[in-house]
Amino acid sequence: MSLVSIKRNMIQWFRILLRGGLLSYRALFSWLDPRIYITTLVVAPVLQIIFFSYVGRSIGISDISFFVAGNALQICAMSCVYGVIMTVANERLEGTLLVILGAPASRTAIFFGRSLPNIANGILTVLMGFLVGELFFGVHMLRVNMLGFLLTILVTVFSTAGVGMVVGSIGLYLSRELQLLANFAFYVLLAFCGVNFPAAYLPFLLQKLSYSLPLTRGIIAARELIAGASLEQITPLLIEELTVGLFYLCLGFVFFRFFEFMGKRRGTLEEI
Amino acid sequence: MGFRAIYSSFRQQLLQELTSTYYLIFGLLEPIVFTFVFSLMFQWGGAENYIPYIAVASGIMGMWSVTVFVSGGNIEWERFLGTLELLMATPTSFIEIMFGKILANSALTIESIGVSLLSAYFFFQKQINVAYPMLFIIVILASVVSLSILGLVLVSAFTVSRSTWALANMLEYPVWILTGVMFPISQLPSWILPFSYILSPTWCAEALKMSVFGGDVSNVLFDLLIVGILTFFYYLLAKILFILIEHYVKKTGALQLG
C-alpha cells in the first residue's frame, strides 16, 4: 500500500470519526433544538445536584461538597451513557442504522465517533455542575489543585462513556428495551457509585460491584481534591479509573461487532 | 361530560401502559432505586425510623414521574403515529379523551407506592405500619385524581410544544424540590414557598405521610380540602387551556409539527 493511499485512508477514517459522530450527535437533539439540549443537559442535571444537596442537608450532613462532587460527576452519565445509547436508538428509529452498518466504513471510526461528542458534552456538563455547587452551595472549586481537578473530570467522563458504549452496543440487538436499559444504566451508576452516600455503606457484594464500575474512584478523587489532596495523592485513583474505563470501552467494541453480526443475522436492525 | 369516552380511553390506556417501557422505568424501576438510595443516605445521616418515610416519599416521587413522563410520552407517541390530529378532530371532546388516558396513568402510579413499600421491606426487612389505613387509601385516591387533573394542564402544554421531552425533563425535579417530598420545604428560600403551596402534590405528600405515621386526623382532612380546592382550579385552568389550544391548532394547522 503506497504512502498516499495510507494517508487517504487515514483522512477517511478521521472524517467518519468526526463528521459521523457530530452528525449523529446533532440528530440526538432533534437537529440541534436548543430547548431540548438545555433542558436535558443543563436544567435537569443542575436540579439533580440541588435536590440531593437539600436532601443531604436535611439528614444532617453539613459537608454539602460531598453531594456536589458526587452528583456533578454522575450527571455526565446523562450525556455519556444516556446520550450514547440514545444515539443508537435514534438511528434505528430514523432508519439510518441499517445504512450506516451497510456501509464499508471503518467500524472503529463509527464506534468511537458516536462517543466523542458525548464525552465533550459530558465534560461541559460536569464543569457546569461544579459551577452550580460554587454558586448555590459555596463549594469553592478554584482553591483545589486545578490540574488534578481537570484530569479527574476528563478521566471520569471518559470511563463513564465506556458504560454507554457497552449498553449502546447491546442496543444493536435489543430494540424495544433500549430506553429501559439506558435508564437502568443511569440508575445503577446513581445507586452504586457512592454518589450520595459513601460506597462503604453498601452491602459487601455491592461494594465489589461499585468498584468494578466507572465513576466510583473518580468521585472519591474529586472529594479528596476538595479536601485538599494533591495531584500525586489522587494519581493511583485516576489510573484505576482509567483502567476501568478502557476495559468498558474495549468490551463495548467487542459487543458492537458481536451484536452487529447478530443483528444482521437475525434481521433485527430495523426493529423499532 | 362523556363518561363513556373517558372510560374507553381509560381502559385502552391502562392496557397499553401495562406493556409500556416508560411505565416500567418510572413506575417500577425509579421507586426501587430511590428507596434504596435514600435509605442508605438516611442510614449514613444517623436517622431513625426512616424507612416508612422514604418508602412513601419515593412512591410519591414515582407518581409524579409517571404523570410527567408517561403523559408526555403519550402525546409524543400519538404525534409520531400521526393519530394526534385524529384525536383532536373526532367529535368526542379532546379533553375527555386525554383525561381518561391520564387517569389511567395516575391509577397505575398507585403501584409506585406499593413498589416502594415492598422494596423497603425487601431491602431492609422492616415492617411498614400504616397508622390510618382507610385514610391512607382515601388520600391515595385523592392524589390520583388531583395528579390526573394537574396532568391535564401539562398535556395542554405538551400538545402544542415540539419539545415535549424538554418540558418533561424540566418538570420532574422542580416538583420534587418544591413539594418537599424528601425534605422539609422550610429549607427552601421563603420566596419559593408560594409555588410550593399552589402545587397539590405538596399537600398530598403531607397527608400521605401523616396517614402513615399518625397525627391529628383533622390535619389530614385539612390537607385533603386544600387538595380538592387546588384540583378544582387545575380543572378550570385545563378547560380554558384546551379551548385555547383547540382554537390555536385549528388556526395554525401545526398540531403534527407541534
Describe it:
- The complex is a heterodimer of chains A (272) and B (258).
- The longest helix of chain A is centred in the last third of the chain and has 36 residues, at 231-266.
- Chain A has 272 residues and is mainly alpha-helical.
- Chain A has helices spanning 3-28, 34-58, 65-74, 76-93, 97-102, 107-137, 146-170, 178-192, 204-211, 216-226, 231-266.
- The radius of gyration of chain A is 19 Å and the shape is globular.
- With 258 residues, chain B is an all-alpha fold.
- Chain B has one domain (3-252).
- Helix content of chain B is 80%, strand content 0%.
- Chain B has helices at 3-17, 21-45, 51-81, 84-89, 94-124, 133-160, 164-178, 193-197, 200-213, 217-252.
- The model of chain B has no long low-confidence stretch (mean pLDDT 83).
- Chain A binds chain B through residues 30, 33, 35-36, 38-40, 43-44, 47-48, 50-51, 54-61, 176-177, 179-180, 183-184, 187, 190-191, 196-198, 201-202, and chain B through 21-22, 24-25, 29-30, 33, 36-38, 40-47, 162-163, 165-167, 169-170, 172-174, 176-177, 182-184, 187-188.
DSSP summary, beta strand count of chain A: 0
Number of domains of chain A: 1
Oligomeric description of these chains: heterodimer
Mean pLDDT of chain A: 84
What order do the helices and strands come in, and which of them pair?
The complex is a heterodimer of chains A (about 270) and B (about 260).
Chain A (H helix, E strand, L loop, with lengths): L2 H26 L5 H25 L6 H10 L1 H18 L3 H6 L4 H31 L8 H25 L7 H15 L11 H8 L4 H11 L4 H36 L6
Helix pairs in contact in A: 1-4, 1-6, 2-3, 2-6, 3-6, 3-10, 4-6, 4-7, 4-8, 6-7, 7-8, 7-10, 7-11, 10-11
Chain B lengths: L2 H15 L3 H25 L5 H31 L2 H6 L4 H31 L8 H28 L3 H15 L14 H5 L2 H14 L3 H36 L6
Helix pairs in contact in B: 1-5, 2-3, 2-5, 3-5, 3-6, 3-7, 3-9, 5-6, 6-9, 6-10, 9-10
